[in-house]
Every structure is written in C-alpha cells, then in structure tokens.
Amino acid sequence: MTFVIVDVEHVVHTCPVHPDGHPYDIRRTVVDVIPGGPCRAPVTVRCGGQTVQIPCHRHEPAKRQCGACRVIVTERSITTRTPNGAAA
Predict the structure, then answer these.
(1) Is the CB of residue 1 less than 8 Å from the CB of residue 71?
(2) Per its UniProt entry, which superkingdom is the organism in (predicted)?
(3) Alpha carbon 61 to chain centroid distance?
C-alpha cells in the first residue's frame, strides 16, 4: 500500500448566516509519501491489436486493486484558524 501523509488547515470565518463559523478555505499539504512498490497483479488489456500489461490501479476499482497499488491517506494534523491568523 502507498501511504500518503497530509496536514490539513481549515480557515474559518463567521458571518450572519453562520454565526458559529464555517470553513471557507481548506488546504492540504502532502508531508510524506511511502510507496507501496510495483504492482503485484497487472491487468492484460488489448490495445490496437496488441495485448499489453498495465498496473491494476489504472484499470480496476479500488476494492479490486492489489495491496501495492492501493493508496491510504492519513491526516497527520488538522489545524483550524481564523482569517487574521488566530487559532480557533
């Protein structure tokens, strides 16, 4: 499995419609990527009279992909702040 570790930052503001505040800007920063390695279950497809093998992540839905092709995203930290920079 490929692991992607991200930091998330929410910028929150209040307005008459949402007096409790709501995020209007969400940013994600990729901190680290740990690759899963080469595909262990390549798929054979026909292309222009030829047969070629491609990694399963390019052809199969996520639940049918091999362990090396799956991607797991982990949120390392979630920060909430207001537009003036103060932490909420």
Answers:
(1) yes
(2) Bacteria
(3) 15
Q: What span, in angstroms and rounded, lies between the C-alpha atoms of 84 and 41?
A: 50
Helix-then-strand count for the chain, H and E = 0, 5
39: nearest Cα among 65, 71, 59: 65
Task: Give 9-68 pLDDT, tens digit per residue.
Answer: 999 988 888 888 888 899 999 999 999 899 999 999 998 889 999 999 999 998 999 999
Q: What pTM did the predictor assign?
A: 0.70
Residues 6+ apart with CB under 8 A from 49: none
